[in-house]
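Exercise 7b. Backbone tokens:
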């Protein structure tokens, strides 16, 4: 392809909202343009790399037996009402009506569409397992689209859905796709950290996220210095930093709990300063409001009168709202995502002051577990070992001293709801945990019967009995993967594409595109194209400096410079984008050398 016809509008300047490298470089190198906030167009050069990422994803998905198909992007709202997500998905779901006033959604993900199709075709166990996928447009009305195509509103996802008769079959596909993902990211030149998205402490895993390290990452990863434990902070657990049994025995020696005056001391910091003790002597009690709770609360304190309802016709029964007390050691923090997971709630957030006052009969700052009989009390595991603590006393300006869990109060649930921090101990090996921030590129997930139940999918088993299949789902963001390649492979001058996803493998730069130089440049371009490579020939009437800068910015891996002087000696200059200096080689050896190098790199990425 000749540069003059390639529509590569490179730029020196970038818009102020482009704060990360990939966003800046995708603009400057003429890969993308913005149509509106969160909506990006790929220009021809960008689309070339985009298609190469798609191709790698497609090859590896096909290699594990997944079958590509193409449902629609616009899906009947009816299906989303069946699954319950019409109401539960929230504001990021774009809902629309057609001229007949029928409801539709613009797919943000496609469990419903795939499951509806499978439901109509599935009759016998002989059709399972079945893994289907698409590489298709998604729309999510993200609150804050940012970082270019990293978090946009319209993007392309490879999403796969698998259907099985049993756990073992689901696990086999889940593992195979997990391996395919590792190969996909490797081939794109991406260094990913696979992270257990459940706690991982129990060994089994029903969910794994593939993260790339990134300063602007939305996820905090918890990693172990001594073993390969890696978990999302939303789910991470840590080893207990107390000896449970010893301290429970010691409770016998604790004096009975007593009231102490704590005028105007509401926060742990104020109490610590006043009593000259450490925060870990306190039990902190926080009141949470949770919504859409699937957990059965019929026996939970104060919840008997709560009614369950269905957000939509076939959705599971949920409690629309309920309040809970969470008690945790004073030096630790409650992790709201873990708390919501324990409650099977869509969200758990701190209750407002008015609700705290109403539910605890005390001003804010004096909540405590003793006497809190009308609220389900969830204690963090850290509290179960505390035998001589200070807690709020449900009364203005008052706390209790010498409080022991088990002796002075019990709980409705003991769970791990703490936020794991750097310095905590690994749940697997006891090593030191540290944190990194990361971006999620892909996610694999065992869904079980969630959608096949709500959408009523059945098949007949060997004995002619009706059964529900179980499901897995598997996503990769193509745009985000592409942007992440640039984040990992660039320098001050521009992108440095891995050969596997480079828009062109080779750029040929004739110093002046005429006469013998033109003839030799055309010839080289033809030979390299015949060898199966993508070649860009910079035929523009520009100064060499401009051409070199554009070649650096667009990141094309191999550059061949052909000038009059070199040709006289049958030489050309070649350089890989990573190298600083040009090398002189025989013009007639250029093809062999470049072809060999690119093959080597592609093979290396496949290993
Ligand atoms: P995030 O937490 O980053 O919003 P998610 O958990 O919503 O991601 P999934 O629903 O698992 O993501 O979607 C699968 C993949 O789709 C993600 O791993 C990511 O690569 C991609 N993706 C999700 N949202 C966006 C977006 N707004 N822009 C670009 N890619 C996205
Ligand atoms: Mg999201």
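Sequence design result:
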């Amino acid at each position: 392809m000749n540069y003059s016809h390639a529509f590569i509008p490179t730029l020196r300047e970038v818009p102020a909202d482009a704060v990360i490298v990939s966003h800046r470089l995708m603009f400057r190198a003429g890969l993308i343009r913005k149509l509106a906030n969160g909506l990006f167009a790929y220009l021809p050069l960008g689309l070339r790399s985009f298609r190469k990422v798609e191709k790698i994803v497609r090859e590896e998905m096909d290699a594990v037996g997944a079958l590509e198909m193409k449902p629609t992007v616009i899906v009947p709202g009816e299906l989303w009402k069946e699954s319950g997500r019409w109401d539960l998905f929230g504001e990021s779901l774009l809902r629309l009506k057609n001229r007949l006033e029928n409801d539709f959604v613009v797919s943000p993900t496609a469990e419903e569409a795939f499951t509806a199709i499978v439901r109509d075709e599935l009759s016998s166990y002989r059709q399972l397992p079945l893994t289907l996928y698409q590489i298709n447009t998604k729309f999510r009305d993200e609150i804050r689209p940012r970082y270019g195509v990293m978090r946009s509103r319209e993007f392309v996802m490879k999403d796969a859905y698998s259907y099985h008769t049993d756990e073992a079959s689901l696990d086999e596909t889940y593992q195979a796709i997990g391996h395919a993902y590792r190969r996909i990211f490797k081939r794109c030149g991406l260094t990913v950290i696979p992270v257990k998205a459940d706690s991982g402490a129990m060994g089994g895993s029903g969910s794994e996220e593939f993260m790339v390290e990134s300063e602007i990452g939305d996820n905090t990863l918890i990693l172990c210095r001594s073993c390969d434990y890696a978990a999302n902070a939303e789910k991470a657990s840590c080893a207990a930093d107390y000896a449970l049994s010893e301290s429970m025995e010691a409770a016998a020696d604790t004096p009975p709990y007593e009231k102490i005056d704590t005028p105007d001391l509401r926060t742990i910091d104020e109490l610590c300063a006043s009593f000259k003790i450490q925060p870990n002597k306190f039990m902190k009690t926080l009141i949470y409001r949770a919504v859409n709770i699937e957990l059965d609360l019929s026996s939970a304190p104060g919840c008997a009168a709560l009614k369950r309802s269905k957000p939509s016709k076939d959705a599971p029964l949920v409690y629309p709202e309920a309040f809970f007390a969470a008690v945790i050691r004073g030096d630790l923090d409650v992790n709201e995502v873990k708390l919501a997971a324990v409650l099977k709630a869509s969200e758990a957030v701190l209750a407002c002051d008015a609700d705290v006052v109403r539910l605890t009969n005390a001003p804010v700052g004096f909540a405590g577990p003793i006497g809190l009989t009308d609220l389900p009390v969830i204690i963090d595991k850290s509290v179960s070992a505390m035998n001589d603590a200070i807690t709020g006393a449900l009364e203005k300006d008052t706390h209790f001293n010498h409080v022991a869990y088990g002796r002075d109060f019990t709980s409705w649930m003991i769970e791990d709801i703490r936020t794991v921090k750097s310095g905590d101990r690994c749940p697997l090996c006891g090593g030191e945990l540290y944190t990194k921030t990361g971006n999620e590129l892909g996610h694999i997930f065992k869904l079980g019967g969630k959608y096949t139940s709500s959408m009523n999918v059945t098949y007949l088993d060997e004995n002619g009995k009706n059964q529900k299949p179980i499901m897995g789902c598997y996503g990769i963001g193509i745009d985000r993967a592409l942007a992440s390649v640039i984040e990992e492979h660039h320098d001050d001058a521009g992108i440095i594409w891995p050969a596997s996803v480079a828009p062109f493998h080779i750029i040929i730069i004739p110093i002046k595109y005429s006469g013998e130089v033109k003839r030799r440049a055309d010839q080289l371009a033809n030979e390299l194209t015949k060898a199966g490579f993508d070649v860009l020939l910079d035929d523009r009437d520009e100064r060499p400096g401009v051409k070199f800068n554009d070649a650096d910015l667009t990141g094309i891996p191999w550059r061949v410079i052909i000038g009059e002087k070199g040709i006289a000696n049958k030489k050309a200059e070649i350089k890989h984008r990573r190298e600083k200096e040009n090398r002189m080689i025989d013009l007639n050896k250029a093809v062999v050398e470049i072809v060999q190098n690119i093959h080597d790199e592609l093979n290396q990425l496949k290993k």
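Instructor comment: The first helix runs from residue 21 to 28. Confidence is low (pLDDT under 50) at residues 199-204.
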